[in-house]
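User: Can you predict the 3D structure for this chain?
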Amino acid sequence: MQQRDSLGYTLGVAAVLCVVCSLAVSTAAVSLRGKQEANVKLDQQKNILDATGLAIGEYGVQAKELTARQIDTLNAYVSSKLVDLETGEDVGDAAKLEKYSLVEEAANPETSIPIESPQFNPGEPRRPKVMKVYFVKKPGTDKILQVVLPVYGKGLWGTLYGYLALRSDLETIQGLTFYQHKETPGLGGEVDNPRWKALWDGKKLYNAEGEPTAAVVKGPGEDEYEVDGLSGATITSRGVTNLIRYWASDDGYGTYLGKLKEEINDDKSSASEGDK
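Assistant: Here is the predicted structure, written as structure tokens:
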């Protein structure tokens, strides 16, 4: 039997403690994984609801203040599908839709492509070939009220991940929200400020020639394309402009939005013909 003050005894105790602690940490991580994933999903749902304005419109508060039941009620308006950005076609893969991760898709060379856009550069190396797009529809109908586009791009300290909501004309911005970023609180971190986010409501994404034009400008925004700059956060402001214009361009969602606009217009024409 080893003495308690021997080197072998000390090493043995340390080894046992390491094993016990490792098992405890592993068990906690596994048992909490489901809850963590549920919290991530809930946070994404809240940000989508904020971008669309559904939370404010229905309950008069930001989505973070809603109860789980209220969120479930509003989620009845939201559906999603996978879209191939190169072709603009829907990807009918229910299994992938359920497990889709933007970060994982962008990091995998097999499911992403390099970002090579000299005109609109979001500062990121790659983008997924397929993106998960969200739709706001009145329950029980097929009429699209809004389209919500996941967007991301570099700010000052890291990547901003967010949602850009467009009205049914696919040219007018309903809202913009960021659910993850590393910007400085009180400066670039003001992308979280509800008053600043509210400035995007009603701004135009494209100019008359169909070019992505929405921008965060230095000083107050003076026309239908401009939003007030973030004081003391020039790089963050520029980053938001770049990522919005990139994702609105043909390198991002442009091809898909063009096809979707044709479908919406065809549906409107068919409805008009039916009323005659």
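The longest strand covers residues 144-154. Strands lie at 78-84, 90-91, 112-114, 126-128, 130-137, 144-154, 159-167, 173-180, 215-217, 226-228.
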